[in-house]
Predict the structure.
Amino acid sequence: MAEWKRIIFTKPNTAEYLSIGKVDFENLGEHQVVVKSFYTTISAGTEKANIMGVNNVGPSEAVASFPRSLGYNCAGEVVAVGSRVTNMKVGDRVVVYWSTHSNYNVVHENQVVKIDSENVSYADAAVAFIASFPLAAIRKVSLEVGESFMVMGLGILGQLAVKLARVAGACPII
């Protein structure tokens, strides 16, 4: 067992890094995986919305509820697997999507993807899932080389959109 800590938005305008108990590595669900987080992805806009209690950042909430603990994804190492997990093992380098900002994430194996290359750092891998958001938008608008592209806002998603639009051949990028 290990101490489990997580960033928790306890009430509007208050976030704390709190101990929420112990992670039990022995009694996992059959398809659960425990990942020790090395990096998590933070989106300033989402974190601000969470800390303010804006209700558009939770899973279909009519009213923002507290306490809340959210995140996008993390990169880390598998430290335990459930009895029926066959596609990964302890020690694997992985990305977890829809994880939380915590030192351990206990999730279903379908939320975990192996980092297959030693050339990909944990820091870079931690951005992979959130980077798919602006990439999906670029694909949806069928951007072609030489077309103009505009990004509104330069948080993490906007900055990723600019980089991806440049790679896709957008010109000019506004």
Summary: Helices lie at 44-52, 122-125, 128-140, 156-167. The first helix runs from residue 44 to 52. Strands lie at 2-11, 14-23, 32-40, 73-81, 93-97, 104-108, 112-114. The radius of gyration is 18 Å.
